[in-house]
Amino acid sequence: MADKMLRLDDFLPYRLSFTTALLSDSIAQIYEAMFDITIPEWRVIAWVAEKGSITQQQICVLTRMDKVTVSRAAIALTDRGLLVRRPNVEDRRSHLLALTAAGERLHAAIAPKALELESRIFSHFSAAEVDAFRKMLRRIDRIVLEGGDPAGRQGRENA
After folding, report:
1. E strand or H helix at 87, and its extent?
2. Rounded-to-integer distance, Cα 27 and Cα 41, Å
């Protein structure tokens, strides 16, 4: 029996990465043109809006963005008067980010557009397909986060 051959275009991790980049680039162009904001800045605003206040480290965990990207986005948003940094009484080494009134207005303007973009893309699929897709993505997240080491490092360390 012949070994299965790797075809990058059929390799699911590549397909996920490619589709994510394609979608993100498309959305980034819209956000930049309409709101003068980058995808990392939008992700920071969205998580701050959802949580009320949050540390940069928590945003890193929730978004999988690196510390430098989150820090640059937070600095840019603070400089634009969209975020404020507040002392974190639970951890004096960090600050809590919170939206200013201008940040709340920007979030209120972008959120419906984001939902509209999502709807436009996924309207080509049934509700059951979208639900199944969302569940599959969350399941993949869980598998990887709970030790389903895709790089196989666990086996090599124990060998």
Report:
1. strand 83-87
2. 13
Q: 141: Cβ–Cβ under 8 A, 6 or more apart, which residues? A: none
Question: Which residue has 């980049």 as its token pair?
Answer: 21
Q: Is 83 exposed, middle or buried (0-12, 13-18, 19+ CB in 10 A)?
A: buried
CA distance 96 to 102: 17
Question: Which residues, given as ranges, of the chain have pLDDT below 70?
Answer: 1-2, 148-159
* Stated pTM of the model: 0.83
Please state, as a whole number, how many other Cβ atoms lie within 10 Å of the Cβ of residue 122. Answer: 14
